[in-house]
């Protein structure tokens, strides 16, 4: 889930400090969360509202982490790492809440 999904899939030299390497894994986590939500038809509207609020929270949190780098080169990796961490944690929350069935 999240950034942990890259372990065993890429060698470090293939993806050393390249933000774009994390994109496919972020999309996979987003798809996983969408499939969890799709299986909860009776709570669809409440889940949709929760996820929209969570996305705003995630984006604000990660924008803040990015801003701490003051435009430095660590900002991009910090942003991607934050997005991956927050997405992974939300996926675990949804799974633990048994929202997926």
What features would you describe in this structure?
The protein contains three helices and no strands. Helix 1 (23-38) runs parallel beside helix 3. The two termini are 18 Å apart. By secondary structure, it is mainly α.
List strands and helices in order, with pairings.
Blueprint lengths: L22 H16 L5 H24 L7 H22 L5
Short structural summary:
Helices cover 61% and strands 0% of the residues. With 101 residues, the chain is mainly α. The protein starts with 22 loop residues before the first helix and ends in a 5-residue tail after the last helix.
Query: What is the H/E string?
Result: HHH
User: Rg from C-alpha positions?
Assistant: 15 Å
| Class based on secondary structure composition and strand pairing | mainly alpha
Number of strands: 0
Low-confidence stretches: none
Strand content: under 5%
Note the overall shape.
elongated
Main sheet specs:
none
What is the CA–CA distance across the termini?
18 Å
Helix content: 55-70%
Question: Helical region count?
Answer: 3
- Give the rounded overall mean pLDDT: 76
Please name the defining characteristics of this protein.
mainly alpha; elongated; 3 helices; 101 residues
